[in-house]
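As noted in the main text, all predictions were made from sequence alone. Below is one such record, for HesA/MoeB/ThiF family protein.
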Amino acid sequence: MSGPANTADRYARQVILPEIGAAGQARIRAAHVLVVGAGGLGVPVVQYLAAAGVGRITLVDPDLVERTNLHRQPIYGGRLGRPKAQAAVAVLRILNPDVVVTPVVDWLTPANAPALVAGADLVLDCADSFAASYTLSDICLPTGKPLISASVLGMAGYVGGFCGGAPSLRAVFPDLPPALGTCATTGVLGPVAGMFGTLQAQMTLSVLLGFAPSPLGQLIRHEMSGFRLSGFRFDRAPEPEPAPHRFIARGDLSPQDFLIDLRDAIEAPLPAAPFARRHRVEDFGPGGPVPEPGQRAVFACRSGLRAWRAADRLRPHWPGEIALLADLPEIPGGETR
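Prediction:
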């Protein structure tokens, strides 16, 4: 740990700001933030929050460092093959040994998310997963935890402050877009991802310090191919009705569920559960299969995207409960380590 004099020097350039001061720095040091995702967004987030002196950071990510990550995640140079969460911790301990960073090498799921969120003062969604984004929003809204969420693809993206007294992610994005790309399929420019991660870090500090106007209830968009910036406040956005499809954990499945695995036997030799039936998204709709009265419909796929689309096709023909399962691959030894 650094001595008092070294600590004062470290934060001197931000403590001198009238908006922060010694009291503000104390609030930053007392905070515990949960960061989900240690990729193109999460890397600048944890760097700037650790440098600012946030007292505790829990960092969740299941992935290993790959060469294709390095153009937008430069802290991982020389750490190929290591779990990102652990590799990031090694860097942050050098950057600021006063900050306690806990790596969690695992997926964020409906099973582990409640406990992770409960232990934090603020949550940052830096995951490359819309299932994780909606799961976090669904937990943060009723618990009153601020959620700073961002998404970036190609040359554009958004960042916003949700929950914690503001409307949820679902209030602003109640429906999926017609198509969802990934960095692997669509591409992304490193500085664009870094810019949005930096905005997430700034929004986080603004919430922790109580700045006004609050970033909660604010959404910012950047389209960097034309250097266009836009934004709006959504403080009064209504929560979607009826209740949206929610993600559940595999452990929440029941043999009584109408469980549909939307993957074929080549993609998933073992279905989500022994009692699952295999169907395609297109099978659902007029004249398609429906649950028995009293059953819960559960749609499963790897990311949750096909599950959401199948649920949308079933909904006009089925008034009962519908849930989604993002059936992610298991991480060997996936746990805090």
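Confidence is low (pLDDT under 50) at residues 332-337. The chain has two domains: 4-233, 246-326. These features were considered when defining construct boundaries for the mutagenesis experiments described in Section 2.9.
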